[in-house]
Amino acid sequence: MAQYSAEVDGVFVALADPTRRRVIRRLGRGPASVGELAEEFPITLPSFLKHVRTLESNGLIRTVKVGRVRTCVLNRERLALVDDWLAEQRRTWEGRTDRLERFVIDEEESL
């Protein structure tokens, strides 16, 4: 569970930055080279590469270098960690609100 938690933490840290979220959104349409991705941002290439490294080190993207071109590919399985975590939180809170609702209804009916 601790490893799972560290993985989820890393994914959320990577997704906390709007530049990295835009890269993830763009890669949702298909693979792209680092150069293509960087064109959309008004930052230097070295600064953009830091975002790519963060996404790659947290497993959200994979990169493949062929010749001088590095291509980025979205790792959808890693992104699914967020879905799993949110679903778990949703179940927990729905259970709590359901119990609260039953408590309130039972109290009203007993009056």
| pLDDT averaged residue by residue | 93
Shape: elongated
Number of helices: 5
Strand content: 5-15%
- C-alpha Rg, in Å? 20 Å
SSE order, as H and E? HHEHHEEH
Termini, distance in Å? 45 Å
GO molecular function, one term: DNA binding
Domain HTH arsR-type: 1-94
Keywords: DNA-binding
Pfam families: HTH_20
Short description:
Helix content is 69%, strand content 13%.
Q: Any overview of this molecule?
A:
This is DNA-binding transcriptional ArsR family regulator. Keywords: DNA-binding. One of its GO terms (molecular function) is DNA binding. Residues 1-94 form the HTH arsR-type domain. This protein has 111 residues and is α+β, with helices and mostly antiparallel strands. It is 69% helix and 13% strand. It contains five helices and three strands, in the order H-H-E-H-H-E-E-H. Strands 1-3-2 form a three-stranded antiparallel sheet. Strand 2 and strand 3 (69-74) form a beta hairpin. Helix 1 (2-15) crosses helix 5. The model has no long low-confidence stretch (mean pLDDT 93).
